[in-house]
Specification:
The chain is α+β, with helices and mostly antiparallel strands. The chain is built from eleven helices and 17 strands. The chain has a domain at about 20-195 and about 295-365: Nucleotidyltransferase, domain 5. Strand 16 (about 325) and strand 17 (about 335) form a beta hairpin.
Length: about 375
């Protein structure tokens, strides 16, 4: 909705970019302090207890890293639709730099192993999450990195190359280009940070209906109930092989990621960090070191405000889908969006409506098979 000062202020706020429209500042409730998606959950739930504690507040602020996506993208972006909704691009970083080098050779660039668009509906009571397979072939637009480097576009580029060659700004521009939907925020977490967050929370409970044995990701789980530590959790969300019912593709891995994220959300509800100051600080310190955000979220106060505004959303109120795709005829190791069905997804998000079931019917993204064996 426009602000009370009328059209001039609305236009001014739109020009400022990701943060500034009136629809992004709906009054929060405090009934349940849980974020929608795991990465946001891990950061925000702990910050609720740490904000305003002097040194702790200063220390946590110093941990946070921000990227000025607004300046990098300028005004060549989709229109900011003031319908009360919010869209956040959440990415998992597959960088091999530093401690992440144990997962493979550092080839000099960031890589995106996971990409999800989190759409929070007006009223902040439910959300939809659209996973984009990293091997999706898209038209990558020309873009400029946050450091001012110009990156030429490419036809039939793998989606994850946008993050690799141009970082967060190029990833956001690519998502906005293919979806026609403006991203309000950006959140990134890397391998090492992910593991530490899970360990700080005491692990995540999952149940496997059949054994999982994947030598590539070093994951070996018998059938039954498990409390996964950070290393095991990372292996689960990255595995593509050895999973019963799986097809060995990135699409099957996405189904595992979606299942795991819901389990993680339920775990955060029960961990009791808000009643344990020492545990609260440890998790907050770990979480704020693990993430990179856009500069409009780059403070404890902003993350806390986001957490409060999303406090009524639980795992049962989240619809998780994979972008409707089919295997590429020229290269079966790649997928391409199903244009008509993908448009249904993007139209639903822009209009703040539920994603229709017809949008994902027949999509290869719903045929990975792994979701039947892990919960």
């Amino acid at each position: 909705m426009p602000d009370s000062n009328g059209t001039a202020n609305t236009a001014e706020s739109r020009a400022r970019g990701i943060r500034a429209t009136g629809r992004r500042r709906k009054g929060p409730t405090r009934r349940r302090r849980i974020m929608t998606i795991a990465l946001c959950t891990l950061v925000s739930v702990v910050l609720l207890g740490g904000a305003g504690l002097g040194y702790v507040y200063f220390k946590l602020n110093g941990n946070l890293k921000g990227v000025d996506i607004n300046s990098a993208l300028g005004h060549d972006r989709p229109k900011n639709v003031d319908n009360g909704s919010m869209d956040i691009l959440v990415m998992g970083s597959d960088s091999r730099a530093g401690k992440n080098g144990e997962y493979g050779k550092d080839e000099g660039g960031q890589r995106s192993d996971t990409a999800m668009i989190v759409h929070v509906y007006k009223g902040r009571k439910k959300a939809s999450v659209v996973s984009i397979p990293r091997d999706t072939l898209v038209k990558r637009p020309d873009c400029t990195t946050a450091n001012g480097k110009d990156i030429p576009g490419q036809q039939r580029a793998m989606f994850n190359t946008a993050f690799e060659v141009g970082g967060p700004a190029c990833a956001v521009k690519t998502v906005e280009s293919i979806s026609g939907t403006r991203m309000d925020h950006f959140i990134e977490v890397d391998f090492t940070g992910f593991k530490k967050l899970i360990d700080a929370l005491g692990g995540v409970d999952v149940t496997t209906k059949k054994p999982i044995n994947d030598n590539s990701s070093h994951l070996h789980l018998p059938a039954g109930q498990h409390t996964l530590n950070g290393e095991q959790s990372l292996a689960l969300v990255r595995t593509r092989h050895g999973v019963p019912g799986g097809d060995g593709s990135d699409l099957g891995r996405i189904q595992l990621q979606q299942t795991f994220l819901k389990a993680l959300m339920n775990q955060v509800k029960n961990v009791g960090v808000l009643t344990n100051p020492t545990k609260l600080y440890d998790i907050a310190d770990t979480a704020t070191k693990a993430v990179t955000t856009d500069t409009d979220l780059n403070s404890v106060s902003e993350l806390t405000g986001l957490a409060k505004s999303l406090g009524n959303i639980g795992s049962d109120n989240i619809n998780m889908v994979t972008l409707p795709v089919t295997y590429d005829k020229a290269n079966p190791d790649r997928v391409v969006p199903l244009e008509k069905q993908s448009q249904q997804v993007w139209d639903a998000l822009r209009q703040d409506k539920d994603i229709p079931k017809s949008a994902t019917k027949g999509s290869a993204g719903d045929q990975g098979g792994t979701d039947r064996y892990v919960k």
